[in-house]
């Protein structure tokens, strides 16, 4: 950073600071990003155009910010438009280099007028804090607890909340954890690896984070200072995520997944940020920082469809191509918390990037938390809140812990920490090797829930779970002798012109494209990894649309799903959807895209065009070039008329299962058995209806509700009991009275028994959810033998205190009523964008 320290104060007054040399005079000047070639110097542009050079944009070579007084900016803009038109002509002429005139302004390769800094990124915040419940510890659990104690003493773990960190070692639901302790016992704890947490700051003065804090990799883009300290009241999210990855093994709070790895903080979420700064932030110190953990994104409200701007897209590509000595920065993104609003991670241009590892959530019972978004771009899931439990981690403060961390925000960092462990045994893994390892070692869950497809590779994929949950032990083991993949190859089809109206309701518009073996040889393309489809669909109500991609091997990717709240009067404009569901299958054969307008109403539209992009491993890695940076002249690509057919499809399913929560009344993407590829599909093959939402907690065999039934009946009578009681009352009131007396006697008896028995348990529940568990008051704590802090530690005081369970800044207080079924709550409110 070439920023003088003194400027920082001035900049923070401007609100959002730029990392460039001149403070941004936002009111009086306009800013432009220019990509210039090697032969053109920024000072030449300054002289020739009368613009002021503000500096290079982060680590993007040849990309610079220039500014002009506002009065002159229209002329400048017009000039850039002319240059853009000239470039287009040159490209059309077929030989851009040759045709280049003597005009040195031809050295401008790309330009963009820069928007003011905006607040468009949002933390993937935890849903409301879970309930706490008490129960017996069974004899089997006693054994697991002993194993846990043994592991702790072997490793010298004395961290006070380690036993609450069920995501690391789950003594109560064995197997429902990251399976990481065996990795530590093998001596792998993350040494030598650095993860940057791109967020709202990192409390480097926390005793739990201080030993692993990497100052040189850290920067505060919000206050333009080298130290990304949390400042605002709600600047806690980044610290909590950091603790999950690299909290040190000491006597403070718990430990991180990679507790001997280092952690950097990059602060971007606490104020509006410009595209230039965001681009710089995700490449910040990218030779030192190995992994970028990002638990944020566009709003998860089921209405937003937002992708990073061109500079940020380029920075991501720059990161995987040049970061980490060319092995590539590893970007990890939280999938998003908007599932209860029909949101889907393919509407988010960060999570659906091929350059990011997209991580959804799974709860401590192995169930799908209702908030966690599904999509075809989801690679894996990792543990987080749900089932009335959350992630225990470090908080802001010298010795503060937090027991209520959750949402996909908490899942992403656990995957990042696991990757840190893999990189510590194999620093030479490329960003794609990391994705391969996740794909190969993820463990499938709930295989019978109807969401899984068996792929031609033999692996299974689910839009709800990706390839499964992260198994850190398997990941690190596989990494040890992993053979590095060859460089990335790609194939882009021509733009396929469709220009057909989309039928409504029971029909879909299908367009095919056939990929040949020769094309693949020509592209030096050996095996498939990611597939992206860029498309234009215009429609007067975006939320009515859905898109499927069918591969030659019969695998179906739900690229897009209907969203009930998405009223946007546009379709998809040059939007790129991504899928990992075709990983490892042969790309040769017929690919088809089916666009559906799922609702019969006055809203309609047209499927305009699309383009198929295949990404994979090269046949011959010796001189495979790097993919060019993304550009906005993709529209110059050759056009072809597409094969189009109308197919009869079943209407989009209306869910037949009883919703477990008012917000759960939506259709999840569900999969079918792969059909035979054919030009038109019989109705039943395209039937996407499913009898039930298989991933909803009540439908799932090992759901929270069944787990809850293990709990002791509460002394304050649960709602379920109450309902039962009321039903009884309506039927036989006299019998009810007798029964009530009977139960009361039973309870008293049990209470006496409990006080004397030898089981270890702790009674820490407080049925009144609105009553904060502020330590002693209102807390019943009794012991029979030694206490085990099953669900909560002392730090639980934090759980309901202050604003931690408040949604972030954009949330309107509208917390939905909890019911008694134990399924986790939705993000709890409608998130309203500030835009
Ligand atoms: C977890 O790790 C152990 C090694 O510590 C391994 O043997 C086992 O297969 C892994 N998976 C599970 C589910 O325990
Ligand atoms: C859809 O796109 C086509 C082609 O670009 C255009 O002619 C048509 O007017 C558009 N329709 C709507 C409703 O925007």
UniProtKB/TrEMBL annotation:
Domain of life: Eukaryota
Bias kind Basic and acidic residues: ranges: 661-670
Compositional bias annotation for Polar residues: 645-660
Chain intervals with Acidic residues compositional bias: 794-807
Alphabetical list of PANTHER family matching this protein: NEUROENDOCRINE CONVERTASE 1, PROPROTEIN CONVERTASE SUBTILISIN/KEXIN-RELATED
Name of the protein in question: P/Homo B domain-containing protein
Residue numbers spanned by region Disordered: 644-708, 793-835
TM region positions: 723-743
Signal peptide stretch: 1-19
Keywords, alphabetical: Calcium, Glycoprotein, Hydrolase, Membrane, Protease, Serine protease, Signal, Transmembrane, Transmembrane helix, Zymogen
Keyword field contains Membrane: yes
Organism: Penicillium argentinense
GO terms of biological process kind: peptide pheromone maturation; protein processing
GO CC terms in record: Golgi membrane; trans-Golgi network
GO molecular function, one term: serine-type endopeptidase activity
Positions with biased composition (Low complexity): 689-708
Active-site residues per Swiss-Prot or TrEMBL entry: 199 (charge relay system), 237 (charge relay system), 409 (charge relay system)
Localization of this protein: Membrane
Family matches, as InterPro entries: Galactose-bd-like_sf, Kexin/furin, P_dom, Peptidase_S8/S53_dom, Peptidase_S8/S53_dom_sf, Peptidase_S8_His-AS, Peptidase_S8_Ser-AS, Peptidase_S8_subtilisin-rel
Domain annotation P/Homo B: ranges: 485-620
Family label: Belongs to the peptidase S8 family. Furin subfamily.
SUPFAM superfamilies: Galactose-binding domain-like, Subtilisin-like
């Amino acid at each position: 950073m070439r920023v003088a320290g003194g400027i920082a104060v001035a900049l923070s007054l401007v609100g959002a600071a730029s990392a460039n040399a001149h403070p941004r005079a936002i009111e009086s000047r306009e800013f432009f990003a220019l990509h210039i070639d090697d032969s053109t110097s920024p000072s030449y542009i300054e002289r020739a155009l009368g613009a002021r050079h503000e500096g290079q944009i982060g680590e993007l070579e040849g990309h610079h910010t220039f500014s002009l007084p506002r009065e002159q900016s229209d002329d400048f803009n017009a000039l850039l438009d002319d240059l853009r038109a000239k470039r287009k002509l040159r490209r059309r002429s077929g030989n851009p280099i040759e045709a280049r005139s003597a005009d040195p302004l031809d050295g401008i390769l790309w330009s963009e007028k820069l928007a003011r800094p905006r607040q468009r990124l949002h933390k993937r915040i935890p849903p409301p804090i879970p309930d706490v419940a008490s129960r017996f510890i069974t004899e089997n659990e006693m054994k697991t607890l002993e194993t846990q104690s043994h592991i702790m003493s072997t490793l010298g773990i004395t961290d006070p909340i380690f036993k609450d960190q069920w995501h690391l070692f789950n003594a109560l639901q064995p197997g429902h954890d990251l399976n990481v302790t065996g990795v530590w016992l093998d001596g792998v704890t993350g040494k030598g690896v650095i993860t940057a947490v791109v967020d709202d700051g990192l409390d480097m003065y926390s005793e739990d984070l201080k030993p692993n804090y990497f100052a040189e990799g850290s920067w505060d883009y919000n206050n333009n200072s080298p130290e990304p300290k949390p400042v605002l009241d709600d600047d806690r999210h980044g610290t909590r995520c950091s603790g999950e990855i690299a909290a040190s093994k000491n006597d403070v709070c718990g430990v991180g997944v990679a507790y001997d790895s280092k952690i950097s903080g990059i602060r971007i979420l606490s104020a509006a940020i410009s595209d230039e700064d965001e681009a710089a932030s995700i490449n910040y110190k990218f030779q030192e920082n190995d992994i970028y953990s990002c638990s944020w994104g566009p709003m998860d409200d089921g209405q937003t469809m937002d992708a990073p701007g061109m500079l940020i897209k380029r920075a991501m590509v720059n990161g995987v191509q040049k970061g980490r000595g060319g092995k590539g920065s590893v970007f990890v993104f939280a999938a998003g918390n908007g599932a209860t609003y029909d949101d889907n991670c393919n509407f988010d241009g960060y999570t659906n990037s091929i350059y990011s590892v997209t991580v959804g959530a799974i709860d401590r019972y192995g169930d799908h938390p209702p908030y966690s978004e599904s999509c075809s771009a989801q690679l894996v899931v990792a543990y987080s809140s749900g089932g009335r439990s959350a992630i225990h981690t470090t908080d802001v403060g010298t010795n503060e812990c937090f027991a209520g961390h959750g949402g996909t925000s908490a899942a992403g960092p656990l995957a990042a920490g696991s990757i840190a462990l893999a990189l510590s045994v194999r620093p030479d893994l490329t960003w794609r090797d990391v994705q391969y390892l996740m794909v190969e070692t993820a463990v499938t869950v709930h295989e019978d829930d109807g969401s899984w497809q068996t792929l031609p590779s033999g692996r299974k994929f689910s839009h709800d779970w990706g390839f499964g949950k992260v198994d850190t032990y398997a990941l690190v083991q596989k990494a040890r002798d992993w053979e590095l993949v060859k460089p990335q190859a790609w194939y882009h089809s021509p733009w396929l012109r469709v220009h057909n109206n989309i039928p409504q309701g029971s029909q879909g518009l299908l367009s095919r494209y056939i990929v040949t073996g020769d094309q693949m040889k020509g592209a030096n393309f050996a095996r498939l990894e990611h597939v992206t489809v860029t498309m234009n669909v215009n429609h007067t109500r975006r939320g009515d649309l859905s898109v499927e991609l069918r591969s030659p091997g019969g695998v179906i990717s739900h690229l897009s799903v209907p969203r009930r709240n998405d009223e946007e009067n546009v379709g998809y404009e040059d939007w790129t959807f991504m899928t990992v569901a075709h990983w490892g299958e042969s790309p040769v054969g017929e690919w088809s895209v089916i666009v559906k307008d799922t609702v019969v109403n006055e809203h309609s539209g047209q499927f305009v065009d699309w383009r198929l992009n295949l990404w994979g491993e090269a046949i011959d890695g010796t001189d495979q070039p790097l993919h060019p940076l993304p550009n906005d002249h993709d529209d110059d690509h050759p056009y072809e008329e597409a094969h189009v057919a109308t197919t009869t499809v079943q209407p989009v399913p209306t869910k037949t299962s009883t919703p477990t929560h008012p917000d759960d009344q939506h259709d999840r993407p569900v999969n079918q058995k792969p059909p035979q590829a054919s030009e038109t599909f019989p109705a039943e093959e395209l039937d996407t209806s499913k009898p039930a939402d298989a991933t909803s907690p009540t439908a799932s065999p090992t759901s929270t509700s069944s787990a809850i039934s293990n709990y002791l009946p509460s002394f304050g009578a649960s709602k379920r009991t109450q309902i039962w009681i009321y039903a009884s009352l309506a039927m036989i009131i006299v019998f009810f009275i007798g029964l009530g007396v009977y139960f009361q006697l039973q309870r008293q008896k049990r209470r006496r028994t409990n006080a004397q028995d030898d089981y270890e348990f702790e009674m820490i529940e407080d049925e009144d959810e609105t009553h904060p568990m502020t330590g002693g008051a209102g807390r019943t704590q009794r012991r029979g033998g030694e206490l085990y802090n099953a669900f909560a530690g002392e730090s639980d005081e934090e759980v309901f205190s202050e604003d931690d369970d408040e949604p972030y800044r954009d949330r309107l207080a509208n917390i939905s009523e909890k019911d008694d079924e134990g399924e986790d709550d939705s993000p709890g409110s409608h998130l309203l964008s500030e835009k």
